[in-house]
């Protein structure tokens, strides 16, 4: 049965959980579809994650390969396709714990960068798994700065081949997923040399393992890079190339080609490369950042409604920890952020789709804005969600620290999202470059992309709020965020100009402003997130049942942001000290209001117990029984440790001196 | 040889690294002693941590037991004792990776809570490891709130025994270290019942495993609680008691006793219990929080001097990432914090020693202050150091995420320090209670403990700084911190009073202020840390060689705190917006200054390569070679995975349909 402490939380929901779930999914039909996929996956024992927390890196890898292979069969059986509506739910259902994710990147890079002939040759082989692909870009000594890659590909006119080499240890490919133990092929990024001239980075398809017996091909040294903070199921690999020859046709040549005589031909726009990165950054926000935060909130909030600790009122039963203001202040802003970022993901997706339609018409005008937004939001959302998951973990005390809570693995995985697909600080600085440029353009009356037109608008100098309830007005707080973003962008742009005018070299001036530029980029994304949340809530008029609670969450998200960053709002007096006290009062009031719906709000995320894989987060709230049951299954309880015979027994039997 | 990029950093040190090391150690003689201990431990292969990152929980446990047993022999050989000057260096040298730490807590609890007879009986047995002890306080359903523990001990007059029981699953002992697989005895905390009356929590010595064959004793159910985020080497355990009988003499009875007829006698002061907690909290700051942060800084800063990425100046070699302002802003404040907290540890230690001398004279007056400071600093320092280690990890990009960097294990271990020995939020609220009380007393002219006399002093209303260099004056910034702490404490105390006067019940009013109370407690500790750092630097006059760089670090620590919390200084206009711009300018200037000495400043921590156990942090800076060498040793490269024959081969050989 359900723990009465959790059951009671559900009886007082101010809204229909089912309706909120359907809205989050984009309609009841989507909910139905998602549940069908999840059910089919979870019913199949091959996809079980029951023993995940007890497995070694080798065991995790084997299980992930097994699942990936089995998934092909399953999809065939179920009539699902990679392009079908089910596909986005499959990844959620397997909880990312599956191999061959880089195989898809391998295919995508060929589709985007390859010629029609190359696509016709390689994509069918890959689709039918007659090879397993990976994507070898990052090197031991080079990550984000692609121009610095050191792997070389020299064209040999005589044999019509490229000769690939790893000239030094820092040039070794390092980190590519699926490459350590699985892949037979990979796309290698290398500096192209023809007749002694370097043409920069180009992609080459290279076979690394035999299709017959999986042994390494001649000239290939490859293996697994060893243990990581998470991703034990993925065989991130290393690759060293020693005079490896591939035919001329293996350079992906949609945008440039080396002709048989060595003539280098460039064609088409290179800008499309941006678009691939943009697409990846936007696509990871939902699955790799928002979903884990939603799961962490579900686990921590359900547990906080069941865990009782200390007396709140003297003489009464120990209180649910969710009733403590400090616990609410830890968890409820994370819950509000999960909703805010779910909505910003919709916003970015729509922007992306619109941009994509334009690009298909050969109009590349939206690319700079899309690139800036995808970079900034990737950085801001992954950073926010990572610290949100950490807060949830710590809010569960000692039990949160047990792997069985599910929280440590959520954390150790999500933190990687701050690093991969562009390190967050570097991404924020790319956004900042766009913002400074747009601000300059706007100040001189030039037209700027829609998301930054606000930089040109005239601003009021003081926040008009008179009492704490004024701060529950989206107009008031959205305006405050806008003012703050404009101030940070304009003052940093001014500092940059001043430095340059005082004779500091441009690159040095830029470097000296980067701490503030990164802050300005975050402020911009924060503003857009608040504005988008408020606008979405406004459009919910037809759904009165959920509009009210969404309005509360929007208010909480906005006021939490002000409460946690008071300085940037107080700095120029836009918000006064007295007004900040009103913000604090409104913010703390909201915690008590949203606390009442906290459990229904996480129930609406609709995670199954299997997908949470948490002894603390189960729907029935029977946390202590489950912790005990799961702990007993641990391999540490399955055998008497050899430590007893070897060390403890001699010690206890007083043979210490003879050891 | 040493990587030239690291060697060049050392040639320009503005101070003597050796002298700074000696100062940190408390004198050159201490440095010599520490190095001798570290060398003796590291030379012994039993203490090797070489394979640590590749080991399973079972393997880690076995190694930790082996090391603990071997350490006894080693200490005997070397003539070291647990009370000797070497003892504090032994733990540092084994890097905490050792069993039987709870055995020491078992002994300490008997020494503190036991009668002379009990001490005479149990301590010799424990010292000679004729038993292995643990400490069973925390339960599945109860952590910090000891009064809520549910285990029972009923006195049976007929047999002169206590009958111990675990009445329900939430009463199961959960988490005690060394209990899952090693301990033969433990101190169980249980609610004492005599003749049906409950006398509250008392400690009982209970044998849980046979001294002959290590089997569980009758009525005992015990085992390992399974995998955790770290501490794989420790067998944290569970324990269920079913009518377990222990003789009357097994209740630790220094402060209270059950006489043969069931008469309950209380004697002596209970206050001393506070002192034990105080002692543990202060003792963990150095080893469990500051040392890991120092290690993380060493790894991240050395790596940042070796890692080159992107062009800073067009046309030049790629720049060391340590030359980027954003990287400096991540790492250097953590470095300054490591020094600040090393010094606050000295401060607390001295306060503690003084308090202990008083207590030995039966003067308990310093206890409330000591309790408040130890709680607040435990919370503040562990929180700060945990986020510092995370920043270091992320600042190393992808390679920081590899276990081989050493950073993930530092992080997953240090985060536990925010939870154990008192959850940080609860500890901050204990400090806040003391601060509010002291503030009230000070306002009405009563005397208050030395650390809080500042609450009564008259304050200036505006910061007198006129330009950015004024903010390099310790008087200016210490005053700002003091003002801010007073404001947060007094305004929260006022809010609390207002609520109570408006009719809100006391406990409810308190709960409604807790978010702000916790903030006020942090502000107090931050102020004391800055003040102590500044005073220590001032006293360094005789050591001119290191005074200058310590002054820079002190300035950086103080200004980073203002820069990161601008709101609390701007709120009442004590610092104006224009002055805050000066703070920012001074702060950013300092980064460039300290950057020049960054590597020497971490070298001064004097960690050996073995103690860092990091491919990125070695003294010679040969990071890429080491990553490659270590990765090849991974068990994932030691065997062909069965996944190939079972899943990959059938897939690649196009037998998908038959799977």
TrEMBL record, chains A, B:
GO terms, molecular function: 3alpha,7alpha,12alpha-trihydroxy-5beta-cholestanoyl-CoA 24-hydroxylase activity; acyl-CoA oxidase activity; FAD binding; fatty acid binding
Cofactor(s) in the UniProt record: FAD
GO CC terms of this entry: peroxisome
Predominant cellular place of this UniProt entry's protein: other
GO BP terms in the entry: fatty acid beta-oxidation using acyl-CoA oxidase; lipid homeostasis; very long-chain fatty acid metabolic process
Domain called Acyl-CoA oxidase C-alpha1: residue spans: 274-436
Domain of life: Eukaryota
Binding site residues for FAD: 138, 177
Protein localization: Peroxisome
Enzyme active site: 421
Similarity annotation: Belongs to the acyl-CoA oxidase family.
UniProt protein name: ACOX2 oxidase
Lineage: Eukaryota, Metazoa, Chordata, Craniata, Vertebrata
Gene that encodes it: Acox2
